[in-house]
Design brief:
Keywords: Methyltransferase, Transferase. The strands form two sheets. The protein has a seven-stranded mixed sheet with strand order 3-2-1-4-5-9-8, sandwiched between helices. Strands 6-7 form a two-stranded antiparallel sheet. By secondary structure, it is α/β, with parallel strands linked by helices. It contains nine helices and nine strands. Helices cover 36% and strands 26% of the residues. The radius of gyration is 17 Å and the shape is globular.
C-alpha cells in the first residue's frame, strides 16, 4: 500500500481477517466512506490501494464496475480471489503514473486509509484527478489530525512520518500533518473540497468493541473527504 517497501506483503492474510470485522474498519471506515460515496450503481470506480478487496466487494454488490489496484502482491492476490470476475485487480504502486489508464476513465476514485502512506501525496492526487471524469469524485479517508496529535503529543502543527510497530510485527509508517496542510495539498492537486466528514462509529461497534466505541464517540479517529475537480475559473 505504501511506496518503497511493501509492509503488507507477508501480513495480508492477517490484515484481511481482522479488517473484515475490526472496530476501525468494519464499524467505522467502510460505512462512513460508502455513505459518503452514495449510490454507485452503474459507476466505474477505481479503488486505489484496495487491500484484500473488502471495499471492492461492497461496491460490486451495489452495482458498480470496480477496478482495484494495490502495491502489495499479496493483497492483489487476496482481492482477486475475493472478487473473481466481478472486478479487475492489478498490482500498481501509487507513486507511479497510471500509464495504462486513459484520461477521464472513472466516475469515482477511492483512497481509503492509504494517502498517508505516500511520500508525494500531491502528485498522486493529480494523477488520480487525471483519470477522473469531470463530474466525478475522489473520496479519501485518513487518520484524523487530532487523533495523530493525541497519540504522539508535542505540537499539533508539526508534520512528518510516524513509525509504529503493530502487534503482529508489521512496521506502520504514515504521514501526519495539521488539517490546514491536508486541505492545502488537495488544493495544490487541483481539487476542491465538496464535503468533510469526521467518522462516527456504528452502534454495532458498541456490541462488538465496547472500548473502542466509547473512545470514538468522544474523540475523532479518522476523517473522510469528498473532492471534486476544480474547473477553470472556479
Amino acid at each position: 500500500m505504501q511506496s518503497g517497501d511493501v509492509p503488507y506483503d507477508g501480513f495480508a492474510q492477517t490484515f484481511a481477517r481482522e479488517a473484515a470485522v475490526s472496530a476501525y474498519n468494519a464499524h467505522y471506515d467502510r460505512p462512513t466512506v460508502l455513505g459518503l460515496i452514495g449510490d454507485v450503481n452503474g459507476l466505474d470506480i477505481l479503488d486505489a490501494g484496495c487491500g484484500p478487496g473488502l471495499y471492492l466487494s461492497e461496491l460490486a454488490a451495489r452495482g458498480a464496475r470496480p477496478v482495484g489496484i494495490d502495491q502489495s502482491a499479496d493483497m492483489v492476490r487476496l482481492a482477486g480471489q475475493r472478487l473473481g470476475p466481478l472486478a479487475e485487480v492489478r498490482q500498481h504502486d501509487l507513486a507511479e503514473p497510471l500509464i495504462w489508464v486513459e484520461d477521464e476513465s472513472f466516475d469515482v476514485v477511492l483512497l481509503t486509509l492509504v494517502l498517508h502512506y505516500l511520500p508525494d501525496r500531491v502528485s498522486t492526487l493529480r494523477e488520480l484527478a487525471r483519470v477522473l471524469r469531470p463530474s466525478g469524485q475522489i473520496v479519501v479517508s485518513t487518520s484524523h489530525p487530532t487523533a495523530d496529535w493525541l497519540a504522539r503529543g508535542g505540537s499539533y502543527f508539526t508534520s512528518g512520518f510516524i513509525e509504529e510497530s503493530w502487534s503482529d510485527g508489521m512496521i506502520h509508517r504514515y504521514w501526519h500533518q495539521p488539517l490546514q496542510d491536508w486541505l492545502a495539498e488537495f488544493t495544490a492537486a487541483g481539487l476542491a473540497l465538496d464535503r468533510l466528514v469526521e467518522h462516527q462509529p456504528l452502534p454495532s461497534m458498541a456490541r462488538n468493541h465496547p472500548g473502542e466505541h466509547e473512545k470514538l464517540t468522544r474523540q475523532p479517529g479518522f476523517m473522510a473527504v469528498r473532492l471534486r475537480k476544480r474547473h477553470p475559473g472556479a
